[in-house]
Amino acid sequence: MPDKASSKIVVAWEPEDTDPGNPLNWPAWKKWANVLVISTISFLVPLVSTMLAPAVQLVMQDFHTSSATFATFCISIFVLGFASGPLLLAPLSELYGRVIVYHVTNVFFFCFTIMCAVSKSEGMLLAARFLSGFAGVATITIGSGTIADMMPREERGRAVAIWSVGTILGPMVGPIIGGCVAERHGWRWMFWILSVAIGLVTIVAFLVLRETNQSVLLERKASKLRRATGNPNYRSQLEPAPNITPLEHFKRAIVRPTKMLLLWPMVTILCSYVALLYSTLYLLFATYSFVFKDVYHFTTFSAGLVFFAGGVGTLIGIPYVGILSDRTLKQRMQAGKTITPEDRLPLIITLPGALAFPIGLFVYGWSVEYNCHWIVPQIGTAITGFGSILVFIAIQTYLMDAFEEYAASAVGANAVLRGIVAALVPLGGLDLYHRLGWGWGNSVLAFLALAFAPVPMLMGAYGHKIRGMERFQVEL
């Protein structure tokens, strides 16, 4: 439609609720095909991150090192790549589209996983692990943006739950596979096997994934009309303001995740809570093999299986939060009430999640300290897994709904902080346990989690007021 003030012809979805070009109007099978592909990749990436955990001692023998720092850093450096990638990948997906970022990073992830398999030294392995984390984090960073592009709010909870299962279950399944393969064939073979899986999924992604970024799609539609009609006045409804140059637009996009993390207190606090829980999980992942080999005398294969309990807890939590999150929104819609992002943080989700995580740590730590039967610490890790998935999904869906247009940057900010903390905290993990013991070492982490436990509940109750405060308004 013409804009008389500028002679601009605005290109939009016509009509918005039925235009087949709008990802929100895609058929369900097409939406879920995209969700399942990015969910599969999001499962493989963190699987690679922890798969090496039960085989760390084999790697150290191969490279003739006894460094305790290397023992944990070869696991956590992958997560450091997680922290770096979102700063570039999230804004690029908002500028140039999701699919191109997926395809390029998937190919690099495949190449760097092979580089891990052929590493000849500690430095080469660490570099390959960092780069594979940097490239692999794409789906974990911008998957939220894809879901926000396609799914209406009342259907996002289930989609986010399915997508999130990989990010939490992957780190727990990885050591099971890694322990089995490493004990029988050596640690390098685990990377060769994963390379094949990543290569196959990359091919499927090329065939299935379609662009969902609405600003990119509308710009393509406008460009097509300009070429077809010869009229240069066709302009996307979502194009940047005319006074913003492409370079300025790019600069704003690049700094957006950092601005959200540093200048929006609600984002800072929620991301700090997630970072604490995520880093605690990675500290556990990095030390499980030492606990169950030294205390319970497990083999490399058996030490990999101990991650299974946390995965079971996570699987139980996924349908719980996925169903209840969407149900809360649908009930409010049926009652004629206005839906707000804070509806993603109901007490029925946040309270069990915030309490289960530290309770699981207490059970795990003290049962190991007193050398209880190995099933008891496994129960503790299952409780911790259940609590973590509830908190992670609730906060991720909240950030997506609160910053809908910039969902990828909001979740990217979350990924940056949790990645940095999760990469650094495990470095001192063994020293923490050596000084305080398994009981008090895990209790310290549990008390920190309890200190942050009220955060999602308070944000659910007062988040709408905080978001409305003028002092917290930041231009994105």
UniProtKB/TrEMBL annotation:
Which membrane topology describes this protein? Multi-pass membrane protein
From which domain of life does this come?
A: Eukaryota
Localization annotation? Membrane
- Entry's Pfam families? MFS_1 (PF07690)
Entries under Gene3D superfamilies matching the protein? MFS general substrate transporter like domains
Keyword annotations from UniProtKB, A to Z: Membrane, Transmembrane, Transmembrane helix
Per its UniProt record, what PROSITE patterns does this chain match?
Answer: MFS
**Residue intervals of the Major facilitator superfamily (MFS) profile domain:** 34-469
Name the principal localization, coarsely classed. membrane
Q: Which family does it belong to?
A: Belongs to the major facilitator superfamily.
**Protein name (record):** Major facilitator superfamily domain-containing protein
Give the classification, highest ranks.
Eukaryota, Fungi, Dikarya, Ascomycota, Pezizomycotina
